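Summary of Year 1 activities. Much of the first year was spent building the evaluation harness for sequence design. The harness presents a backbone, in tokenized form, and records the residue chosen at every position. We chose the following record to illustrate the format because it has been used consistently in internal testing since the harness was completed.
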């Protein structure tokens, strides 16, 4: 079920209303209803096959957690201290199960050259797998959920099911015992609606319109000039951020309406002064997972420079592979790993801040080309075009389909107006402003104060967004 549909808004309203009413009567009733709504969301988005695969994985995790905790010596539910006597064998077997399922569905075709392929991937499998692995890892370190009845919601919570954020157990389970769960304050409600409106506008009004330019450019690589190629490159950089951060804003807003707080997943990443800083601001929960569940177990930076560099490169190669089963994703991950190694070895602190930002932003833009490209040849072709001396201005076909309804309205008033440049300029101006805004919507939720001008602005943005729903595409990260 796409977030950008009237059906989802109706589902969200019914779920929030029903769960909160049930929670007033009895919290367990509200929890059961929320679990049922999350399963319904999963069925609508991925079908019963997806539900079966994910539910089987959740059962495997729950059985392993229960077995490990039961065999541990006097481990109370909700414990957060490492317990040496935890039997890790069941947790390891469960982790192998999750990695095996992910490998079969997502990577069988890649590693066998297409000889073996399932042909479909369960909804949100990549995010589900990492979240379950995080749970197993924390249980091995002594953590235990406060109640077994909380495990299904951790696995299927509908705002985070498709594209995260990836929830660390210690940040999620305690909230289910908090008095705000299913009983949010009026301030929480206002902040939640604010985040949903902002996230929807990011996705529908900016990301999807940038996607029109980007797709037009990739579909006609041979016709691009250098300026047009740079518009395509920058357009995807902004599109990906606005698309994914827009999803996280909506997810956080929906969770806040239920009295739950999701972690901040983006913190103005394109303001970073280094690639290392970029990964502290971009997809923060993924970075945290990889650091705690992969980088540290590999030895982190505690075993010498060579081992540290090898660990960094390993983490980013696996990060690239997690995003997609293809050489382009491995190249993208490898580039980021090598960039962080270079920064660690030589640093950039001596350079002026403006130059450090420019180098970082340029690198991130160029690396995203491989992330978006259908193959390595196409990526190199676009980069080659961007570096040629062909300075022809972008042609009008690059804006074909961009803000078509709005353009039609303008042409009624100004029949001779060439709207292509105007539409491209307007979309990029809005996207750059939002992308470089120093505060993000999720971060502002805790200090949000309803005001008249915010109400007017958000109402207009929400109305424009809803009117544009018919042309909405799925979130980019739902494909990973």
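For this record, the design step produced the sequence shown next.
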């Amino acid at each position: 079920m796409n977030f950008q549909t009237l059906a989802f808004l109706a589902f969200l309203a019914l779920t929030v209303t029903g769960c909160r009413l049930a929670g007033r009567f009895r919290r367990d009733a509200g929890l059961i209803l929320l679990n049922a709504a999350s399963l319904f969301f999963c069925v609508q988005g991925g079908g019963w096959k997806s539900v079966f695969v994910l539910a089987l994985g959740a059962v495997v995790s729950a059985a392993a957690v229960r077995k490990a905790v039961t065999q541990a010596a006097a481990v109370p539910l909700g414990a957060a201290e490492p317990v040496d006597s935890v039997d890790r064998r069941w947790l390891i077997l469960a982790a192998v199960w999750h990695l095996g399922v992910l490998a079969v569905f997502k990577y069988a075709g890649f590693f066998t050259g297409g000889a073996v392929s399932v042909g479909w991937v369960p909804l949100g499998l990549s995010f589900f797998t990492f979240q379950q692995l995080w749970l197993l890892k924390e249980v091995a370190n002594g953590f235990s959920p406060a109640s077994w009845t909380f495990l299904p919601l951790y696995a299927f919570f509908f705002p985070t099911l498709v594209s995260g954020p990836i929830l660390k157990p210690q940040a999620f389970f305690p909230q289910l015992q908090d008095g705000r769960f299913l009983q949010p304050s009026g301030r929480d409600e206002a902040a939640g609606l604010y985040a949903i409106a902002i996230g929807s506008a990011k996705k529908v009004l900016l990301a999807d319109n940038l996607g029109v330019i980007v797709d037009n450019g990739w579909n006609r690589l041979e016709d691009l000039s250098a300026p047009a190629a740079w518009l395509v490159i920058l357009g995807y950089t902004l599109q990906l951020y606005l698309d994914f951060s827009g999803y996280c804003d909506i997810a956080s807003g929906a969770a806040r309406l239920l009295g739950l707080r999701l972690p901040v997943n983006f913190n103005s990443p394109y303001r970073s002064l280094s690639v290392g800083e970029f990964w502290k601001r971009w997809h923060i929960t993924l970075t945290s997972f990889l650091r705690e569940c992969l980088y540290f177990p590999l030895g982190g930076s505690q075993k010498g420079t060579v081992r540290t560099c090898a660990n960094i490169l390993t983490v980013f190669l696996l990060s690239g592979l997690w995003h997609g089963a293809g050489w382009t994703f491995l190249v993208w991950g490898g580039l980021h790993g090598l960039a962080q190694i270079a920064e660690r070895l030589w640093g950039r602190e001596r350079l002026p801040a403006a130059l450090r930002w420019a180098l970082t932003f340029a690198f991130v833009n160029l690396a995203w080309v491989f992330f978006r490209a259908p193959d390595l040849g196409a990526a190199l072709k676009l980069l080659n075009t961007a570096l040629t001396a062909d300075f022809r201005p972008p042609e009008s076909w690059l804006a074909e389909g961009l803000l078509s309804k709005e353009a039609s309205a303008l042409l009624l008033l100004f029949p001779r107006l060439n709207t292509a440049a105007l539409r491209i300029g307007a979309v990029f101006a809005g996207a750059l402003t939002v992308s470089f805004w120093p505060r993000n919507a999720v971060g502002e939720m805790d200090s949000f104060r309803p005001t008249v001008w915010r109400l007017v602005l958000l109402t207009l943005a929400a109305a424009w967004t809803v009117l544009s729903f018919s042309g909405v595409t799925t979130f980019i990260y739902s494909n990973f």
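The longest helix spans residues 27-71. Quantitative recovery figures across the full test set are reported in Table 2.
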